[in-house]
Amino acid sequence: MKQRPLISVIVPTLNEEARIGPVLDEMLSQQDLDAELEVLVADGGSTDATREIVERYARRGNVRLVDNPKRHQAAGFNQAIRQARGSIVCIIHAHATYAKNYLAACQSARERTGAANVGG
Asked: What is the pLDDT, as a whole number, of residue 119?
């Protein structure tokens, strides 16, 4: 039996209280995904309710809050990548919306092409 890979989804945030809940819902309800999933939210010191929202999701499992003291997006990516456990890393943004099969489509394109990087 083929072992399902772990996909680490990374979301950088700074004051994203209006968008982080919907984005986490979209990631956690992905369909047709032949993988396990973890979501790491790299927060750059939000002063709104972003961190509290992420902490509520984290209590349910497979979501983690990662501190990004440098506050820049690139630093947040790097900090979260260092903590990611997945063999596949997917970087997304809180200001976007994602189809129900977004991760499955990325996984399929990666497997079909052998590409090191896919996106859409």
From this structure: 75
